[in-house]
Amino acid sequence: AAGVPLVCGTTADEMRLFVDPNAEQPARERLVKRAARYLGVDTTRGGEIVDAYARALATDDTNEVWRAIFGDHEMQDPCRAVLDAHAPHGPAYTYCFTWQGPDVGACHGIDIPFPFGNFVDGWDAFTGLDDDGRALSAAMRTSWARFARTGDPGWAPYAAARVLGHKLADAPALPSETVALKDA
Description:
Blueprint: E1 6-11, H1 28-39, H2 43-57, H3 62-86, E2 92-97, H4 123-127, H5 131-150, E3 161-164, E4 168-171, H6 177-183
């Protein structure tokens, strides 16, 4: 893929659909053990990670902390790894999709209809489509078409990132879930 432009991004709340928000919250100690096992670290480091996420999210809701750890590890970290591997060999661009759908946040897949402008079969309700959403969709279609034509979507290359939500913004780096959720 040397010399081939790449655009790669994530949603701000990737794992929202995969973690039951109504589930009983695990005790912090149980979450520390789960996070340590999942991330392949010892429990001391697991506790530090859990506490850092709790501080960044300003919550003691262990379900919220787990969802952010899970999302970063499953989606954000691999996205960064792809971008880090590609950027030395060709143009790379990234984005974080922060549009919040009703009851689903900026979950995995909510971004699908936006670059296509196709909100049929219930996607309009799922995404909470309104005039801001239509404007976001138009902006994404313009960027994706420009990228297909020129290899440049119209924002700064990686490590910078475009934040795609109710407002378009540029960030110095791809936000983690803890940052993106605050700014959504």
